[in-house]
Design goal:
Blueprint (H helix, E strand, L loop, with lengths): L1 E4 L10 E4 L9 E10 L2 H8 L15 E9 L11 E5 L8 E5 L3 E3 L13 H14 L7 E5 L4 H12 L3 E6 L2 H10 L3 E4 L5 H8 L5 E6 L6 H7 E9 L12 H6 L3 E4 L7 H14 L1 H5 L7 E6 L3 H10 L5 E5 L4
Parallel strand pairs: 8-9, 8-11, 9-10, 11-12, 12-13, 14-15
Antiparallel strand pairs: 1-2, 3-4, 3-6, 3-15, 4-5, 5-7
Helix pairs in contact: 2-3, 2-8, 5-6
């Protein structure tokens, strides 16, 4: 088969479409013939040499895929050859075939195109696990999403609105904020022109956000704590603004607030399976009913993954960037 390889870390040109050995599904895995994968920030970090795959994972980038099962490994039940699926991966999505642990598979939701289903596993699992399983967002509460027009952000807006929460977003342009509004965002903050702490206070009569979903990290740590409501929960899922920040414990204490930080890729299989089961139970019916939908900026041939990475790094996209695998 062919896959995107990274012979040496570097810029987008480091991504090389090459012939590689065919994978074999192990115990509890299925082999998926990939129709599409999607680009995530973690793929960019891996290409740059900053985020190696977990032990035993595929060396190729790609944290999600959609396609058809072509082989069942030992010990797999509940799935059949020919099933159309999407899956959460520790790596290997930028390839024509990839082994997927059965516990990380999802059926393609009713009403969703097979290729577009590749836009769902990573964002659905990340948002559901952090905003709902960890931060326990409830109806009537306010959720602040940094990077509202990203793949994570567009999913978070829709899921929060579906459960009856009020949604605030930050984004970097009027066009991006307009798209967030179309998806249901109530409070729109241009981070180039406005301070999100002040804007959030104005919009919530001084209360702040009950939950903040943050992709920035250190740069926003102090302001995020100031933006939290009493009993607020800050969920950090990215470090685009650095890894070390100063935390005012007094401010945190006075608000009886909590800070959590999680990643998905390196979790044990059992934890990933539990998250995927929760996503199937809670998110998949919303997709089938059309309440939530994948937001795709564009689809690029997988062989041209370098172009997709340049687009990701430009931050000019809205929603997910898909990679279409070549079809026989």
């Amino acid at each position: 088969m062919h896959a995107i390889t990274i012979p040496e870390p570097g810029g987008p040109e480091a991504l090389v479409w090459a012939e590689v050995p065919d994978p074999v599904p192990g115990e509890g895995e299925v082999l998926v013939e990939v129709v599409a994968s999607a680009v995530n920030r973690a793929d960019v970090l891996q290409r740059q040499g900053f985020y190696n795959p977990p032990a035993g994972a595929s060396p190729y980038p790609g944290l999600e895929c959609a396609g058809r099962i072509v082989e069942l490994g030992p010990g797999v039940s509940g799935w059949s050859v020919g099933d159309e699926v999407c899956g959460l991966l520790a790596g290997g999505g930028y390839a024509e075939k990839v082994p997927v642990p059965a516990g990380q598979l999802l059926p393609v939701p009713d009403g969703v195109d097979l290729a577009q289903a590749a836009a769902l596993p990573e964002v659905a699992a990340t948002v559901w696990s952090n905003v709902f399983m960890v931060a326990h967002l409830r109806p009537g509460e306010t959720l602040l999403i940094h990077g509202g027009s990203s793949g994570i952000g567009t999913m978070a807006i829709q899921l929060a609105k579906a459960v009856g929460a009020r949604v605030a977003v930050t984004a970097g342009s009027p066009e991006k904020l307009a798209r967030c509004k179309e998806l249901g965002a109530d409070i729109l903050i241009d981070y180039h022109e406005q301070d999100f702490v002040d804007e959030l206070r104005k919009a919530t009569d001084g209360a702040g956000a009950d939950v903040i979903l943050d992709i920035v990290g250190a740069k926003y740590l102090d302001r995020n704590v100031r933006a939290l409501a009493v009993n607020g929960r800050l969920a950090i899922i990215g470090l685009q603004g650095g890894v070390k920040g100063e935390l005012n414990l007094g401010a945190l204490l006075s608000k009886r607030a909590a800070v959590t930080a999680t990643s998905l890729r390196g979790r044990p299989l059992a934890e990933k399976a539990a998250i995927i089961a929760a996503v199937r139970e809670h998110v998949w019916p919303l997709l089938a009913d059309g309440v939530v939908r994948p937001v795709v900026d564009r689809t690029i041939p997988m062989q041209d993954a370098a172009e997709a990475h340049r687009l990701m790094e430009s931050s000019s996209h809205i929603g997910k960037i898909l990679l279409a695998a070549p079809q026989a």
